[in-house]
Write a structure and sequence with these properties.
heterodimer; A: mainly alpha; two-stranded antiparallel ribbon; 19 helices; about 0% strand; B: alpha+beta; five-stranded mixed β-sheet; three-stranded mixed β-sheet; 12 strands; about 15% strand; elongated
């Protein structure tokens, strides 16, 4: 394992500042040209692609939302047919959950976690590249199918028996189920990378209680992904088997049961909500500390709350099934377990409020989005407490009240922090500031538009409007609130257009950011903006939870790493004491080829079971290429 | 009885706003169960409102508060940190107490809503894509009958509906009377409710069930017990024989043109089981599962081209001459 390198290997302790930068840049840079770009394994390059792709899917999912709001703006509209509407709401949900919300959070982690823990690349960088390609191909597969009129139309939850071959004899549910496989493979890969990066690649001295809160949040999220995603993969794979080779997992006439699907789906589906929210909470903690100009109060409380939310999130899936005829006492227990999650969530909110109370807030755009987050998310959490009650849920389940609730929880809990995070970290990623003036417009349009769009839906649900209806009759008294909601949706959409304008404008014209434009405390701000390929010329040593505030002049650093090949420093799990120097893989085309082979295999296997046979040899070939030992160098995982 | 029914209808539409908004509303309970749910809802709503307002006030005060002068992020005041820690801990405990309290309130409500009564009127409701089969079952077969998309019940008496599905999952929901319950393939669920007041309460499928999920509604018509008894007696009878020549012609065409393959009309040779039972179609208030009011114009339009009104439903467009259509329509309208 450890490198008994040649005695005359070039180490970083014999080079001075500029020489070292140039040398490391040469070693760590992504090769030029198109082929070089396809070979990229730099977490920043992959992370940037991941973020951009996820935002592209946000744009597509958002367009679908607007189409739905046009259709529902008035009663008995014929803008969309029933078939198109059903495809569109399915695509909206699937795109937002699987192609935007989860990937964008993981994308931020891919970009930021290695920088925040002070290392040079993510663990398993080739797996990281593979993960991105699989995500991209899976997303394109879904959207191309949709444009070819084979888009799924059975809801993002694809309940059986509606999604069974008998009731949907088209390829549409297969497309949905296989898209799940793509995105889950991608998500699981990133989860593994994040966990190993956080556990083994932290800068020396970054003990467990010095890990930045955003990194803690991503670590908990990664564990959630590891435990939740297998459930949906089992579910969707058995669905494909039922449809393709006539197994009977969900067929009640042959001893299967439709509720099996719901249990498997929601055992994934509820943690999924926290897979989306916990990173948002991490972003809030990061932004709040910087702009309240003090560390977040109650660091251990926040960390333990994140972990508690992670655990509890696996114990409340049944609240999605309160009206399926479960035993009453059991359902009642899930009411209590669902509400229990309000305790750790509440503790976090109290810590944030206290931080803002004591801090010296600087009201820049990222902080505005965090304040918007608190106002909206608390409302979404409280409506969640209402939905958790069995009797209330029997009325509001599958109505627009629930639509309102989870948009408050998810847009409030994840998208507001995310847009705040874009404003916060854009200077690091792009090297330029986003326009503050456009940022304020962006915030206010988003805040007002969001509430106008989604608040009326609470009332619509209570006065009887079910979800997933493509039309409603004129005598239902729902028209005015729907029109209001559609108007709000347009304003909300406009705020995202403004974000896009801001990004494009700022990339060209705005002021340069410098290393640490916000005077923040965490390590990603200790390097240049954008960071060089090697992230840091010298790996920092961490002596404080807020290193850049504690050692504002210069950070202590590690010396002795190789300067002529890619090398990272492994540290111990709890105390982050240096252990060994470890090689980090070179760029490679094989992850892309492996992803292409996997894609052919996945898509083929919804058409014929034989794809399992002819699809695997190409994958084996690409994996052999990927892991082929290269000379004297170390294992290149 | 028809007159009475119309009176009920008029009453409903001319009642003050609350009643009208309440055709399909959880906020206008007309049943014992929906009333109980509304109590629980209001308790939760009050707690939620108080908490949210408190958070926003603390947030606003925190933002307006005068701050320490210098920007020294790590210059923390230790006693303040400790005091704040205790406050946060206290709030955490308070949250837990509120959560436990709400869980108890919820469970108490749940017990009431799902309490089982002995002396119920029992109906079997079977969900189909996209309509509701309603079976009134009694001890003796001649007291049992089948109808569709319209459920009449007596006020004041607990009603038990047994819920099954013929195809995919549906959900039975009449918010004015009680919460919803799914109709699940291969599983029998049941739901009990009691209507307090006479009236027409709209219900709608609440689980996405395919193409025409949006057009899968029904009506629950709560009648005073004596009127309900009369209706039930009428409904037990076989279909009216057509009174005139055109009606007889319609009855013959109903069989000759294939309608009878899917639809049942009791007391005639039409015995299809795939589509809704039409024995008393003429007395129903709506057609196509609550999609349209039942008038000559809409029923005629429906027979002429059901796929235009509700695309994807399982009733095919039959090639009918206009005089044939008129005869069939005339026949069906007599099936009171």
């Amino acid at each position: 394992m450890s490198t008994a390198a040649e005695p005359n290997e070039l180490r970083d302790d014999v080079l001075n500042g500029l020489q070292l930068s140039t040398q490391l840049e040469k070693v760590w840079r992504t090769p030029p040209g198109l082929v070089g770009a396809l070979m990229a394994v730099d977490h920043k390059v992959v992370g940037r692609r991941y973020i951009l792709t996820a935002f592209a899917f946000l744009l597509l999912g958002g367009i679908l939302a607007i189409l739905m709001r046009v259709q529902l703006a008035g009663p008995e509209k014929t803008f969309l047919s029933a078939d198109k509407y059903n495809q569109i709401f399915t695509m909206h949900g699937s795109t937002m959950m699987f192609l935007f919300a989860v990937p964008v959070m993981e994308a931020f982690a891919v970009y930021l976690v290695p920088l925040m823990v002070g290392t040079r690349n993510i663990a398993f960088p080739r797996l990281n590249a593979f993960s991105y390609w699989i995500f991209l191909f899976g997303g394109c597969f879904l959207w191309i199918s949709f444009l070819l009129n084979v888009g799924p139309d059975v809801g993002w939850f694809a309940y059986v028996p509606l999604s069974s071959l008998q009731y949907t004899p088209t390829k549409r549910p297969d497309v949905w189920a296989q898209m799940i496989t793509f995105t889950e493979v991608a998500a699981l890969a990133v989860a593994v990378e994040i966990i190993v990066t956080v556990f083994k690649l932290r800068a020396p001295g970054m003990t467990l209680d010095r890990i930045p809160l955003f990194v803690w949040a991503m670590l908990v999220t990664a564990f959630l992904v590891m435990f939740a995603m297998p459930s949906i993969m089992v579910a969707s794979t058995s669905l494909i088997l039922d449809r393709l080779v006539n197994t009977r997992f969900y067929d009640s006439s042959s001893g299967g049961h439709p509720l099996l699907w719901q249990h498997l789906f929601w055992f994934f589906g509820h943690p999924e909500v926290y897979i989306i929210f916990i990173p948002g909470a991490g972003m809030v903690s990061a932004i709040l500390a910087t702009f309240a100009r003090r560390p977040v109060i109650g660091y251990p409380v926040v960390v333990l709350s994140l972990i508690a939310i992670g655990f509890l999130s696996f114990g409340l899936w049944v609240h999605h099934m309160f009206v399926t005829g479960l035993p009453q006492l059991g359902a009642g227990l899930f009411t209590a377990s669902s509400m229990l999650i309000a305790v750790p969530s509440g503790l976090q909110i109290f810590c944030w409020l206290a931080t803002l109370w004591d801090g010296r807030p600087v009201y820049r755009t990222p902080l505005l989005f965090v304040i918007g987050f608190i106002v909206i998310f608390v409302l979404g959490g409280l409506s969640g407490v209402m939905v958790a009650s069995v009797p209330i849920d029997t009325q509001v389940h599958d109505t627009y009240f629930v639509v309102a609730h989870f948009h408050y929880a998810l847009i409030g809990g994840a998208v507001f922090p995310l847009v705040g995070a874009v404003y916060y970290w854009f200077p690091k990623i792009a090297g330029r500031m986003l326009s503050e003036r456009l940022g304020r417009w962006n915030f206010w349009l988003a805040f007002i538009g969001f509430n106008v769009a989604f608040f009326p839906m609470h009332i619509l649900g209570l006065i009887g409007m079910p979800r997933r209806v493509y039309t409603y009759t004129a005598d239902m008294d729902w028209a005015h609130l729907n029109l209001l909601s559609s108007g709000g949706a347009l304003i909300f959409a406009l705020s995202f257009a403004l974000l896009l304008v801001n990004v494009i404008y700022s990339l060209r014209k705005s002021e340069l950011a410098g290393d640490n434009p916000w005077n923040a405390a965490t390590l990603e701000w200790a390097t240049s903006s954008p960071p060089p390929p090697q992230n840091f010329d010298r790996i920092p040593i961490v002596k404080h939870r807020d290193p850049l505030w504690a050692d504002s002049e210069s950070l202590p650093v590690v010396a002795g790493l190789s300067a002529e090949r890619r090398e990272v420093l492994l540290t111990s799990l709890a105390e982050a004491e240096p252990q060994i120097r470890e090689a980090s893989p070179e760029p490679s085309i094989w992850p892309l080829l492996a992803a292409i082979a996997t894609t052919i295999f996945f898509i083929g296997s919804i058409f014929t079971p034989w794809a399992v046979l002819w699809g695997t040899p190409p994958m084996a070939v690409t994996l052999i290429g990927w892991f082929w030992p290269a000379g004297s160098k170390e294992d290149e995982a | 009885m028809q007159v009475r029914l119309r009176r009920v209808l008029v009453l409903c539409t001319t009642w003050p706003l609350a009643a009208c908004a309440g055709r399909q509303s959880a906020l206008d309970p007309q049943g014992l169960q929906s009333q109980q749910i509304q109590y629980t809802l209001f308790i939760f709503l009050a707690v939620a409102a108080i908490v949210w307002i408190a958070v926003v006030i603390v947030l606003a005060l925190g933002m307006l508060r005068r701050k320490r002068p210098a920007d020294q992020p790590l210059d923390l005041h230790q006693p303040f940190e400790e005091r704040t820690g205790r406050v946060i801990l206290g709030l955490g405990i308070a949250t837990a107490v509120v959560v436990i309290g709400l869980s108890i309130v919820s469970y108490a409500g749940q017990r009431t809503v799902f309490a089982k009564d002995a002396n119920t009127l029992t109906l079997k409701i079977i969900g189909h894509q996209w309509w509701w089969e309603v079976r009134y079952e009694a001890d003796s077969p001649h007291r049992s009958f089948v109808t569709a998309n319209e459920i009449r019940i007596p006020t004041g008496q607990p009603v038990k509906v047994e819920l099954e599905s013929a195809d995919v999952i549906h959900s039975f929901w009449v918010p004015s009377l009680t919460g919803k319950m799914d109709l699940i393939t291969g599983q029998k669920n049941e739901l009990q409710f009691t209507a307090k007041n006479a009236g027409i309460y709209r219900g709608q499928c609440a689980e996405f069930c395919g193409l025409q999920h949006a057009n899968m509604a029904f009506a629950v018509i709560a009648l005073p017990p004596d009127e309900f008894g009369q209706w039930r007696d009428r409904e037990n009878q076989s279909a009216n024989s057509p009174a005139d020549q055109l009606g007889k012609q319609g009855e013959a065409l109903f069989r000759a043109r294939g309608c009878a393959l899917c639809h049942n009309v009791s007391g005639t040779l039409a015995g299809g089981q795939l589509g809704p039972d039409l024995t008393h179609i003429g007395s129903r208030t709506t057609i196509a599962a609550g999609t349209l009011p039942n008038t000559s114009a809409t029923l005629g339009g429906w027979i002429a081209d059901p796929q235009h009104i509700k695309p994807g439903n399982l009733m095919p467009k039959m090639p009918l001459q206009s005089d044939e259509l008129i005869a069939i329509l005339h026949y069906l309208e007599q099936l009171k």
